[in-house]
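Appendix B, example 12.
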Amino acid sequence: MKRNHIFRNASVVMVSLMMGAFTVGCSDWDDHYDGDASAIGTAASNLWENISSESDISQFKALLQKAGYDKVLAQPQYYTVWAPKDNTFDYNYYNSLSLDKLQKEFVQNHISRYNYALPNEKNPIVNMLNEKVMPYVSNTISGVNISNSIGTSNGILKKLDGRLPFLYNIYESLEPGEFAIDSICQYFHGYDMKVLDKTKSVQGPVKDGKITYLDSVFNEDNILYNLFYAYVHREDSNYTMLVPTNEAWKKAKEKITPYFNYVNDFTFVENTATNTLRKETKVNIDAAYLRDSMINYMLVQDLFYNNNLFANEALNTLQTGQTLQVDSLVGTNNYRTGRSLVYSEDAANLFEGATRVDKSNGAIFVTDSLRMRTWTTWNPPIKVEAESPTYSQSQNIFNGTGYSTAVTAGTKNPLVQGSVSNNRYMYVQPSATSTNPEIDIYLPHVRSTTYNIYGVFVPENITNENIGVEDLKPNRLRVRVVYNTEQGNTRDVAFSGYVENDPTKVDTVLIGEFTFPIAYEGTGGYYPYLRISSNVTSSQTSRYTREIRLDCLMLIPKELDEYRQAHPGYKYYEGSDTYY
């Protein structure tokens, strides 16, 4: 069977489930539960015998027998059976279901483990055999009236004035049916697997150095739960999921594809003191495989929202056709990775035109269009801290020495406008008064798209009020970008002109616009980089400083810059009217 591809932590993960010869025999998982002697009913007859003798639940009895639960309820495990009385439900409909559906949607939906003589005020819920959660309050369960109770030798029989509601959870709903959602269903179920539950399985003898099991219990699992931090299979959870139709899936893939242009072979350039001595490493990847993996991953990563977190609670009551009114939403992937939230109008756009369908653990919103702006999901701004040891190490600095320098609320000069990202910046000191230092900074997560590249520079008096404004000097810098062409070759290009900053404030300066022809996100630790060089002649030292104080670099997608210019005040992350 063809497997989907998946992206995790900047690498492609191939999933395979390897099972040894562990299984000797399997039986019904009910057999793994022993009874609670203190919960035995007062009557001598068991549950099945009592059900058989009650004339007003004959339809329920027939469906139990058809599903094979006559034998289950005659055994000495303890249950509470919630039996809808005759003609309070559509018997013919349930009788027409397949055996699997009959068991899950009806029979297991009306049986719970242990005796529930009275509701538990502290925890008024009942877990059914199909793991659905029902509120048991006063004399009702899930709002259905309980007409009477009968004690038995292995549990309690409670008669109901109607059937209990059944809803699929979000994961169970990822099946084609009422909506044309085959594409996302195929992707999601491509990672389904069965995992041996050792705590419920009965261990047997060791054979050939391997543990065997006399009785094996398997749980359904899917690695996407952990990858997206979205446990949409759990009945005790509360999620909202955007579910794209096949049309929406196709349109989104077409939109995403240009950002993930890969080549099979390219050259990774490791920085050295001079361009003529650069160390080059040949990199080989499966471009088609990686592109497909990345596109699918990016398409799905921001579809999940935990309704119990932050302003996401508004999703609990949002209905079809209503406009979502929140300051922000926190996707599960945002929460896991610390990425920017989705704010205001962008959050509202996500659910425009979508159809709500309630589920047992939340809701899905089926949509014909994923109304995500590119920069809020698959092509976000990239921020690189200049002091980061990952992207600018000591060997990245030439003709000088670099220092990661702290700026705290207590040490910052209050007269300086602006703030320092991450409370640190990179200070590059020339190795001699007559030399111009250089620093190389690698650029992670780059897509094949056009960015406006900004540098954020820190003034010399950032922590020193004694330095007068008249003594501050700007930088005069040349910036080059080292990247790969669509043929995989290395190219070194200089931005036109010089970069100069305002030395009296933390200053964000546009370095230039650049289009990367290939993507690097997902290839591993391979990045393009910027070479930032002081360019001050001996005759210019009275006007410019050769020292470099760089806070961070920002790669802003050009489309975001253009949108911001056309929509003043647009907020794409908290407090954002600047780029850092």
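DSSP finds twelve helices and 32 strands in the chain. The chain has a mean pLDDT of 86.
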